[in-house]
Design brief:
The structure holds two protein chains of two kinds.
Chain A: H1 2-28, H2 34-39, H3 47-57, H4 63-75, E1 81-82, E2 87-88, H5 89-124, H6 129-143, H7 146-160, H8 177-211, H9 214-221, H10 226-248, H11 250-264, H12 269-278, H13 282-310
Antiparallel strand pairs in A: 1-2
Helix pairs in contact in A: 1-13, 5-6, 5-8, 5-11, 5-13, 6-8, 7-8, 7-11, 8-10, 8-11, 9-10, 10-13, 11-12, 12-13
Chain B: H1 16-25, H2 27-44, H3 46-53, H4 84-120, H5 122-137, H6 140-149, H7 159-162, H8 167-180, H9 182-195, H10 199-206, H11 211-219, H12 224-247, H13 274-302
Chain lengths: ~325, ~300
């Protein structure tokens, strides 16, 4: 087991390293130039000054050398300054990562809490009208553009009913727990919609499969109540693939969070990455993207471990997917 | 089993009429097909409608901003006084064009990689599939935003290409195809793995055909069903991705309309002109859900084994 975890961690570290290089190169291809941004339109700056500044910043070096220098600094914990915030990058990102994780964790929990009962309900009566209605709702959930769902929720709850705030994280001067929760409701509804749809379909499929197993027939033959058969014997085994998929799906949760945060001005990682890319804040964008990738990779490892640990039929020496 | 499994008609699963009958039983898929056909017809006839109404889709009229629906403008006008209906139809042309092109491009990449991966197996297979896993599991949207923000001039593209009106269209097709291929690749790989052991492939091998010929002439035609299903589902996803990127200002660039970028300004105007937010979004939703239901119906029709109980 330890060996398995170490192998997966080493693989992920390698992926992260490759991604850091790819993102570094891509950010270098974005419009604009750090020196141009630094000097603005100052007419007193001469071409010689620009060359001197470039040499000072190391921008005259070849790409690989620059990346090597960045990596060396990064490994020592120095990730540079954010241009937009005039603060060290990590100082900007730390509270925002926390904000994102809160948003994603609550949305994921809500999605599973709705999806598992809905999926079970559909699986117990395949082909019934409730099953078909749930199925259609699931199709709607994966087909609705998330930003448009956010617009509709704002239109309904903020503009028409005036019941909830349209954007932001707290009322200035208030900021109590209840106030913050009011600001969280719409972002969480937006973010959990796609998850609810996806997990319901997976729960239904897994449940239908499990309910056909011999041990379910045995449990029923013993005369156990149907409720107990479904919720204790079947659910335990059906839950495994669902939870694994939820963890493996962390990357798309991050993508959803980017849209949700941008729509609702929620100060999280997704909005920060978007603002950094749009505002030519190279350091912030680079570290933000790597952090997002890293968190996703960790979630994937946890999913693998949980899968190997919970299901005795899976040997953790066997590579997943092969 | 004999050699005849390779011939169409001998295999009951490849019978077109059985598949069609199964497809027609999936009522939602049939409705979706009609919705998409109607949408396609309306969108294609946009220029004719433009002439008929005597309007220009790009004509800005700041004196008629956000006009309500009326005889002159059937759905009213947008924040710059342009006719909303014509903008929607032209936006639909762009969104559907991007959806089809990017999905087909992704299918070509995915089918090729899936064939190679499944046919050769071993290390090639491991590398391609790890790559596919990676593309699927990474936080895609943040990475796509960086790809979309790249300055084409720094890639050495000449000005006449990067500065042209339709450049943003090509760019989004390329970007989405780059991340859309794994679904098709996985399905084709799985099909190739089982087809590789079939007699008609072994016969082709015995005849001394090279791997390229066997893959593309003998195996590929037999993977048509999963490719068709996956591509249909991909069209819907591509339209979603295009709308998100265009909404964020990184996809189709105005003044060229797309359903996504028509919503960009809608958030600020949502209390004054909710119709501007409702129409493009409804059309995206309707199109994407139709493609998804159509894909579901095709899967049920072409691959009955995959059909879940119900």
């Amino acid at each position: 087991m330890i060996g398995f975890i170490l192998t997966r961690a080493a693989q992920s570290a390698f992926v992260l390293l490759v991604m850091s290089f790819i993102i570094y190169v891509l950010l270098g291809l974005m419009p604009g130039d750090p020196i141009d941004l630094m000097i603005g339109a100052d007419p007193n700056v001469t071409a010689a000054d620009i060359a001197r500044l470039k040499a000072l910043q190391g921008l005259d070096q070849p790409l690989l050398d620059r990346y090597g220098a960045w990596l060396a600094n990064a490994l020592e914990g120095d990730f540079g300054y954010s241009r937009l915030f005039s603060k060290p990058v990590l100082e900007v990102l730390r509270p925002r990562l926390l904000n994102s994780l809160i948003l994603m964790a609550v949305s994921l929990a809500l999605a599973l809490m709705v999806a598992i009962p809905a999926g079970i309900h559909a699986a117990r009566r395949p082909g019934s009208w409730t099953d078909q209605a749930i199925n259609l709702l699931c199709f709607a959930g994966v087909s609705v553009p998330p930003f448009w769902l956010a617009l509709l929720l704002i239109l309904l709850f903020a503009v028409s009913l005036g019941a909830l705030p349209a954007s932001g994280m707290q009322t200035i001067g208030d900021g109590g727990l209840l106030d913050r929760i009011r600001y969280m409701i719409l972002p969480i509804l937006t973010l959990s919609a796609a998850g609810i749809a996806g997990y319901t379909r997976h729960t239904r499929a897994a449940m239908i499969e499990v309910l056909r197993e011999d041990y379910i027939r045995t449990a029923r033959a013993k005369g156990l109540a149907e409720r107990r058969v479904v919720w204790r014997h079947a659910l335990r085994n059906a839950l495994l693939p669902v939870v694994t998929i939820a963890a493996l799906d962390f990357g798309s949760l991050f993508s959803g969070a980017l849209i949700t945060e941008t729509m609702f001005s929620w100060l999280g990682m997704g909005k920060t990455i978007y603002d950094a890319v749009m505002g030519n804040d190279y350091n912030l964008a680079l570290v933000g993207l790597l952090l997002a990738t890293g968190v996703t990779l960790i979630a994937n490892i946890l999913a693998d471990i949980a899968y190997a640990w919970l299901d005795p039929r899976i040997s953790y020496r066997v590579e997943r997917g092969s | 089993m004999s050699l005849s499994t390779a011939q169409p008609g001998a295999n009951p699963r490849s019978g077109g009429s059985t598949a069609w009958r199964r497809f027609r039983r999936h009522r939602l898929a049939v409705v979706s097909l009609w919705v998409l056909a109607l949408l396609f017809a309306v969108v294609v006839s946009a220029p004719a409608l433009e002439v008929m109404l005597g309007l220009d889709a790009d004509a800005v009229n700041l004196f008629a901003r956000m006009a309500p629906p009326g005889a002159a403008h059937w759905l009213g006008t947008d924040e710059l006084g342009r006719d909303l209906l014509l903008r929607l139809l032209h936006g639909g042309r762009v969104s559907l064009l991007v959806g089809f092109t990017a999905a087909v491009a992704a299918a070509v990449i995915g089918a090729t990689l899936g064939l190679i991966s499944g046919y050769f197996g071993g290390r090639v297979d491991a590398i391609v599939m790890r790559f596919a896993d990676g593309v699927i599991s990474l936080p895609l949207l943040p990475l796509l935003i960086v790809l979309a923000a790249i300055d084409p001039g720094k890639l050495g593209l000449p000005e006449e290409i990067s500065g042209s009106q339709s450049f943003s269209l090509y760019r989004i097709v390329v970007i989405i195809a780059l991340v859309g291929w794994p679904t098709v690749a996985r399905l084709v790989r799985a099909a190739t793995l089982s087809l590789r052991q079939r007699e008609f492939v072994l016969v082709a091998l015995a005849q001394g055909f090279g791997p390229a010929r066997i893959m593309f002439r003998h195996i590929l035609p037999n993977t048509a069903s999963p490719i068709l299903v996956a591509t249909t589902l991909t069209v819907g996803n591509v339209i979603l991705f295009e709308s998100v990127l265009s909404f964020l200002g990184l996809g189709i660039q105005p003044p060229m309309p797309s359903w996504g970028n028509m919503l960009t300004g809608a958030q600020d105007l949502i209390s004054e002109a909710p119709a501007l937010a409702l129409w493009p979004g409804t059309l995206i939703f309707l199109t994407v859900i139709s493609f998804n239901l159509l894909g579901d119906g095709l899967q049920a029709a072409l691959d009955p084994r995959s059909r879940r109980v119900g």
